[in-house]
Each structure stands twice: as C-alpha cells, then as structure tokens.
Amino acid sequence: MPSVAKLLSDVDLTDIHALRNLLLAHGMRPNKSFGQNFLIDRAVLEHIVAAAAIGPDDEILEVGAGTGVLTRELAAVAKRVVAVEIERDMLTLLGTTTSTYNNVELIATNLLYLNPADVFGQHPYKLVANLPYYITAPTFRHFLETENTPELLVVMVQLEVAQRIVAKPGDLSLLGVSVQFYGQPRIVATVPARSFYPAPKVDSAILRIDVQPQANLTKEERDRFFRVVQAGFSMRRKQLHNSLTHGMHHKNEEVRGWLAAANIDASRRAETVSIPEWLTLWRCIEHDPQA
Known about the structure:
By secondary structure, this protein is α/β, with parallel strands linked by helices. It has helices at residues 4-9, 16-25, 42-51, 69-75, 88-97, 116-120, 136-144, 159-165, 174-180, 219-232, 240-248, 252-261, 275-286, and strands spanning 38-39, 59-63, 80-84, 104-107, 126-130, 152-158, 183-191, 196-197, 204-211.
C-alpha cells in the first residue's frame, strides 16, 4: 500500500477540489497577507516551463514555492530545483507534495534575504516563480542586483506590472527602466484571473527577462546612476529639468546644463527618456566637478 506521503505527492494540485481538500486536511486556507493565489491551470504551468527553456543540466531557483504545483513541473525536467518558501505551514505542505523528487531542495527564508551565491556559488541558474503581487518590484531589484544574477527570469506577475516593465520610451516608468537596464523583458502570455484559486481581482502575465551585461558599471556606479533616474521620475508629470532639480537638490541652471550636454530637451518628461539617454546624462553629471 502506498504511503500517505506518496499519495499526497501524487495529488493533482491543479484540481481545485483536490487542492481544497489538501489544504483542509492540513488545516490551511489561502493567506491573503502572503499573497497566496494558487495556480490551478495546467496549460499555464506548461507555458512557464516552456518559456524557461529548461534542460537536464539546469539549476532552478523558485521563490515563493507555495503548494509545489510549479516546483514539481520544474523538477521533472531540471537537474536541481531550490524552492524557497517562508510560510511555515505551507513549507510543511510543500515538503509533502515534493517528497518523491530527490532533486528538490527546500529553503525556509524570506526571498529578499536569500543570497543566490550562497546556494549556487558562481554557477549559472534560472529564476522561475509565481510572484506575490505585493513583492514584485523588490524581488526584481534584489535578484538583478545580486552578486550572481540569474541568466534569465520567468515570473508570473500582475498584467499591468508586466506591461509597465516592457514599455517603450514614451511610456516608461522607474520600474521599466530598472528592469530593462539589466535585461530584455517580454510578455510570454497573459493569464486570466480564473487560473488561480482563489481568483485575484486582476489578470496576470508570464514575463521572461533575458539578463544582459550591466553596462560595465560597478555597484557604486549603478547606485549613482539610479539616483539620477529616480530623481527624474520624482515628479513624473513635470518636465525633466524640474524633476531633476527637485530630486537632486541642484540649481535649475546646473540641471539644464547637464541636459544640454546630454543632448536631451529639458522640456521632455522622464517617461520619454531611453536607457542610453539616461546613461549619457548620468555620465555628463559624473564628469561635472560641481555635481
């Protein structure tokens, strides 16, 4: 007779009735404070795995692993899956649903405290996750700025957020610049709210980000670069010279001089400025001894 663990590890986690019964058996229910919306659409799972182009030698980091519905799909094709989950009861359930996969490792921690270099050393890895909406932007910043960045990310995010991330100059946001500085994002597929239990109020999207060289800047230089960008977006509805004056606490005449040196019209708005233009502006400021 199969063990209880074996039976639970075989439960179809995309079957909403089976999932409800499993949660009930463990005295659990979706926790809104942790942004728990469980994926119950197998076609979406297949989209995620395909988008990550996982091979038998790949090592995968999954953050916010939840019930293990995605973890098991990843483990079926990858060499190694490191699944991160912070919620204690969910971690217990995750250990059960993935118990038959010897290539799955569980880590109990806040994903923002995880240093990938401690897990993978300098070996390449891919980050694949269904991210809670409330922590999307901090997650991107943490993993794109870490010592060992993933070679690509495939993540489920709120559709509106995905659209902001892939936006072109003219509709850029600070989030869009922050992600596109590190890689090339694209929306792989949209995911309707009904693909989750419980269904969120908004649709989602599968987003793939191919990480690229970071403009040959040191960490300190990147920090200074993004201070300029943040200043530019500090008053988004204002013209660029006003936003930079306000955000950088410099005289307007100085700011106009930097913009002129970078060949950027001072009356433009931050959302129209491309990343190469931001880099040019930042370099002009760096070379100004008065800055």
